[in-house]
Design brief:
The complex is a heterodimer of chains A (264) and B (311). With 264 residues, chain A is an alpha+beta fold. Chain A contains five helices and eleven strands. Chain B has two domains: 186 residues, D-amino Acid Aminotransferase, Chain A, domain 1; 113 residues, Beta Barrel (OB fold (Dihydrolipoamide Acetyltransferase, E2P)), CATH 2.40.50. Classes of the chains: A alpha+beta (264), B alpha+beta (311). Chain B: Belongs to the ATP-dependent DNA ligase family.
Amino acid sequence: MAVAHKGAISFGLVHIPIQLYRTTQDTAISFNQLCKDTHERVKYKKYCPNCDKELKSEDIVKGYQYEKDKYVIMTNDEIEKLKVEKDRTIQIQHFTSLANINDLYYEKNYYAVPEKHAEKAYELLRKAMQEENVVAVAKTVIGTKETLLALCPSDEEIIVKTLFYEEELVENPKTILHPDIDKAELNMAKQLITSMSKPFEPETYHDEFQERLRNAIEEKIDGHQILHSSDRKEDHKTPIDLMEALKQSIEATKPKTKRKRVRH
Amino acid sequence: MHFPLYDPMLIGTEQPPFDDDAYIYEIKMDGVRCLAYLYKDHVELINKRHLKLNSKFPELKSLYKQAKKPCVIDGELHVFQDGKSDFFAIQRRTLTSDPFRIRQHSKKFPAVFTAFDILNLDGEDLCQKPLMERKKLLEKNIKESPICNISRYIEQEGKALFALTKQQQLEGIVAKRKESLYQPGKRTKEWIKCKHLLEADFAVVGYIPKEHAMLSLVLAAYDNQKLQYCGHVTMGVSKDYLFAHIKDTIPCPFSVLPDGNEDATWISPFLCGTVKFMEYTQSGGMRQPVFKGFREDKQPIECLMHQLQEH
């Protein structure tokens, strides 16, 4: 897995260089679009209907539509100037109890891994946060985006969670009513819950459509491969065959008498 | 029991082949260096940068069964096809993270582990034992199988083995001093490689699109903390990897724009790539360079100008 981000946790005078690795991967099958007749990959061309010509990247600018057919143009330089300074330091702002962060704020998770020689400072931070039962709220720049983070200790490592900004959250568009429930109904519902309770075993759940899709594709690939399996070279089928063959051919040419020791 | 985490001992120098009684000679398999921690009931495959490779090589899940006692073995993970190890195949395997493709490739390009050293046996650290003693322990403790074999070695006849590897179009040989101890994480001259092609690592600082979906990579190396331009190499297969790893585009990092780079897109030096070539030209360029692949186990800042000259 490739490093998603490199930076350093900064906490008072302590500086802990770390790497972030993703905790999940996209496993869904993705398809390419092909021409039906030639199976060539479909290409996109950027086209201006007004000039009737294909556009190159230097012919394209960014515009914000503020009214129908009316745009303000923002140049790359103008946008660049507004970007935050590329500070890859993960600045801890403060510590807080995990319960203080509403689940809705969590976006993505990363494993934080200490760089060489930072293991001890990292472990100290992890352990102290775990024993105090707190998470750290921090800021950094990932890519070009200023990002809010929560550093959460687990038994093994520090998990870095990116947080949404408050302005990115939308409120529930409808109001939920809370009608009165009587005790008997509530007890019945609780009983049902108890009877259906068991430990969560994530490995028992799969995206079954994806699985059928993979199997179908695999069958087609295997069908193709049978056609191509005959053009293999057959000598030295395994590394052992190769290594033994070379060893033996050297032993066969070795003179019987012991050679003089050669210095180089 | 839990084994300590080891850093592999590294080859310290490259030189022409030689014959010497004090050395053994092994075939250099063109793969990925890997330490295999064989526990009683599972294996951990860990590369030079301490990254776990288990999920990439499901076909090696049962490797631990080849050990009579729990142990840590050092070796090369490679894909052996058509009589030699195919570096591009193993590289593709290590760069694949989609489980479905991994499943496909584990059948089509299965990896094998060629073990050449043993560092720990049943909790006992063996690094302070001389090489030949470790070799004996390795042979005693590992049973060979289609997924696991033990590197063969010969004594004295380095030049002859080197010539044979050329005939077989293999990468070359490694000479190891018989008395040498295992020095974890050290680049030592106790291990010497003799190769048919030269190889050098570079920081990738830019790319230039070419015809037929090919790219030229712009290469550089560090000299006194400053990037120096080192030329181009053409690349085809790893384009997706390149684009997935570009952090940002930057202005040209060289004070003078080198000729032929007018169309280059410059990127932060974040990736490191290996180039194979016949020899250095008089001006310090490379003759017939071929892009071998990105290296996940090396940082661009480690690609130094003076290291290139040492080859």
